[in-house]
Amino acid sequence: MALAAPTSSGRFGEFGGRYVPETLVPACQELEEAFREAWADPLFRAELDGLLADYAGRPSPLTECHRLSAELGVRVLLKREDLNHTGSHKINNVLGQGLLARRMGKKRLVAETGAGQHGVASATVAALLGMECMVYMGEVDIERQALNVFRMRLLGAEVVPAMSGSRTLKDAVNEAMRDWVATVETTHYCLGSVMGPHPYPWMVREFHTVIGLEAREQCEALLDGGVPDIVTACVGGGSNAIGIFSGFADTDAELVGVEPAGGAAVGRGVPGVVHGMKSYLMQDEFGQVQEAHSISAGLDYPGVGPEHSHLASIGRATYEQVTDAEVIEAFQLLSRTEGIIPALEPAHALAWISRDRAKLAGKTVLLNMSGRGDKDVGQMMEILG
Amino acid sequence: MSPSALDEGLAIPDAPTEYGTLEAALRSSRDAGRKLLVPYVTGGLGDDWADIVRAVADAGADAIEIGVPFSDPVMDGPIIQEASELALRSGATPVTIFDELRTIDAGVPIAVMTYYNLAFHMGHERFAQSLAAAGVSAAILPDLPLEEVGPWATAADAAGVETVLLAAPTAPDERLPRVVARSRGFVYAVGLLGVTGERDALASSSLVIAKRLKAITDKPVLVGVGISNAKQAVEICAEADGVVIGSALMRRVLEGVGAAGAGAFIAEIRAALDAG
Question: Based on the domain organization, do A185 and A257 belong to the same domain?
Fold first, then answer.
């Protein structure tokens, strides 16, 4: 394994841990135990692999971007998680957690969602496995991601607006945790990123390592046994980034996470504790969590998964920031040059490549195309007029 | 299931055997046959929160919990969330609340309830010393469970601040004694599966958790979360040593009953508890 397992208390270096209300401690312990058993069980792995292949459509291809590369002077390869069933990498994690929840005898899933991709994936798996599903989504996000809200409802999930605070992803996590505190005996909290209390950051990473493992093989085939110079991905909570990083952590490839300037936990935060974990967190001088502001609902989050904080603090990965304006440009650039409309989230990683193209000239960059842009077309139509 | 081993630096220090101010006061009242009543007041909410603290003290509180508002109160339901948000919006910070607490002479011990990040951000030692300097006896940090409490408890113990731990209905039998052993001041029994807030009826789980705790400790056992009125307080005190009343009081405060109304509500519960 290229990325190490956390310590027994769920830490990556000084980050992580399990800062949850006492009511949830036994549930987190039970989940950790169940995950350890399932992950070591060949039958569980075979069932998950089967669903990843036959239901989600894995392996996802690696696409070389010839026209984009010519325009930027940087050789860009895309790991096509946007081609998975439900349109993003999120399906990898929810298939794993759904099977695990069923194995634990839980009948109901709760989930938080920002852009709606994790909500849609959770609702999909709940439908597939015959489970109840409730998705908490910030009121602001419900407005800007109406299409995904409709999808979730169509799939049989109940979508509940989170009305407190910034009414975005952070508050959706709060509401999902409050739900779980009340329903923990029957419900599995299907957390959507490599964040939250132990074992989530580790478990969700493990479910996404398939991205990195596939990409490593595909790159070696394409690059004559070599690896890209740089592996990059957008970072909100950071699950797609950890997934692709995991395949290259033991190589010389530079790992670059790209955060929105308005929600840059690593870039602008200091260590703090919220949502069950210790990690970099945007907060005020007293430790109140600040509201993030990003064009992308999926990255509109003031925290980040603890392993990213660790990778940043030991210097194994670096974290860049891009503005909304740069993202809008990148969104159009990829659409125009490659015929691929990206989700606003991975458009962040492309925005960084495009902005820093002079510095990256001649390099080979692998970008995790974590989701497709259909969900963002309505919002972009308004912005671009 | 065996508890996870702890990493270096997370070791949980044994709780000091000496009682702190809060535990001494609660034990002495309890041992004199009195049922314990601890109202919760959101610090920094409105201009009159200090008056409300004094009013509930005068109405017969045995100690008072002061909520220091946090941006993301995951253990709290809509009422405390609203109170916290209003207080934050009006500029309340841990510093302004501690400053004001220093000037309130409530005559009963004060416990601060807040979320761990405020202590972590200020620094454990500094936060603990700020509490002590403000005359606060104890701290309740609902998102800091036993396994994570070590670094904070070390600083709090040194500053003479009692750390109250929560005991939940979901805890297996092997876990409760370890929670109880580390809890100081009292043991905060979580009455139900859920966040703070009023409920129509007393949850049967609150009687069960109180009974389980009373069977293993002589520390005061107070039940909070979901205790909504005098009748429910009396009911739960058949098993517990006392109650924490939060949302039911803060709903009235948010409705504008003022210090007099808050005092009257707590006096009503006091009278019911005294009458048994």
Answer: no
Residues of B with Cβ-Cβ distance to A21 under 8 angstroms: 74-75, 142-143, 145, 166, 168, 190
> Out of A23, A170, A276, whose CB is closest to B193?
A23
* A196-204 average pLDDT score: 98
Cβ atoms within 10 Å of A336's Cβ, excluding its own = 13
Comparing CA positions, the residue from A182, A183, A190 lying closest to residue A157 is A190
Which domains does chain B possess?
Answer: 33-275 (3.20.20.70)
CA distance A120 to chain B (A): 24
Please tell me whether the peptide bond between B73 and the residue prior to it is cis, using omega within 30 degrees of 0. no
- Is there a single domain that holds both residue A290 and residue A367? yes
When scoring A112, A185, A191, A273 by the number of chain B Cβ atoms within 10 A, the one with the most, hence best to mutate, is A273
Of B10, B81, B142, the CB nearest to A21: B142
Chain A to chain B, count of Cβ pairs less than 8 Å apart?
Answer: 137
- Active site (catalytic) residues of B: 65, 76
CB contact under 8 A, B4 and A29: yes
CB pair distance less than 8 Å for B165 and A22? yes
Regarding whether A277 and A321 lie in a shared domain, the answer is yes
Q: What is the pLDDT of residues A42-56, one digit of tens each?
A: 999 999 999 999 999
Structural domain boundaries enclosing A151: 11-51+90-200
Element (H, E) at A119: helix A117-129
Closest CA to B207 of B232, B173, B174: B232
Last residue of one domain, picked from the residues A173, A200, A227 = A200
Q: Span B84-105, mean pLDDT?
A: 97
Check B72 against A286: CB less than 8 A apart: no
| Co-location of A83 and A98 in the same domain | no
> Across chain A, which distance is largest between two alpha carbons, in Å?
56
For residues B249 and A235, what is the distance between their CA atoms, to the nearest angstrom?
42
**pLDDT score recorded for residue A145:** 87
Based on the fold, state whether residues A156 and A261 are members of the same structural domain: no
d(CA A181, CA A158): 18
pLDDT computed for residue A364 by the predictor: 98
Structure tokens at B108: 């009963």
Q: Whose structure tokens read 């602001």?
A: A140
Q: Domain holding A136: CATH number? A: 3.40.50.1100
Is the reported ipTM for this assembly greater than 0.90? yes
- What tokens were used for B138? 């104890």
Longest dimension (CA), chain B: 51
Q: Is the pTM of this model over 0.95?
A: yes
Q: Which of B250, B175, B237 is nearest to B206 (CA)?
A: B237
CA distance A279 to chain B (A): 11
Structure confidence by residue, pLDDT tens digits, B160-176: 999 999 999 999 999 99
Interface touch B117/A184, C-beta < 8 Å: no
Query: Are the beta carbons of A181 and B5 separated by less than 8 Å?
Result: no
Who contacts B117 (Cβ-Cβ below 8 Å, separation ≥6)? A272, A273, A274, A281, A283, A287, A289, B70
B274 contacts B223 by C-beta, under 8 angstroms: no
Among the partner residues B3, B74, B88, nearest to A178 by beta-carbon distance: B74
What phi and psi values does residue A318 have, to the nearest 5 degrees? -120, 160
Distance from CA of B10 to the nearest CA of A (A): 9
